[in-house]
Predict the 3D structure of the following.
Amino acid sequence: MEINQLAINDTAPMDLLLLADPSEEMILSYLRRGICFIAKWEHETVGVYVLLETRPNTAEIVNIAVATAHQGKGVGKTLILHAIRLAKNLGYHTLEIGTGNSSIHQLALYQKCGFRLNYIEHNYFSKHYKEKIMENGIHCVDMIRLTMDLNDIS
Ligand code: COA
């Protein structure tokens, strides 16, 4: 699998990005400001992530998604480890990621990659999204924020 930055003239894979974030408006906004990376397997786009500087010395993985047919094969983990290395090489001190209280798989994956639970943005999803989000039989209302100190990474 190859992971490369989206070329300036290439179109971002909106179908994949929408798997992680239902708001196309939000996606277009952070695509303009962030760096988008694409994972390709035999010329097929199988994954994507977007890294965005959110504060001085701090970057966030604002979107990460793997094509449904390729989920559960380690692509997501490879993308996160790529983002961690990139953020470290770009000189950021902190890397952040957020997910819903109902996103059990994502919470497991991010902690396996070394992120630590940081804080909860209560009612984030009920405030910012019109439609009710249900996942794993859980109502998604709160945003769980996770963080990684990149100074701890060698
Ligand atoms: N519970 C606990 N751990 C689980 C799990 C589950 N139900 N399902 C998978 N995992 C583990 C795997 O075992 C693996 O750990 P391991 O390497 O120790 O075995 C780890 O999670 C990584 O799995 P991986 O195959 O790399 O994940 P993926 O390629 O499916 O990508 C997502 C993960 C979340 C990016 C992908 O599922 C996706 O695109 N989902 C839809 C979009 C989305 O939700 N994006 C994130 C928004 S916050």
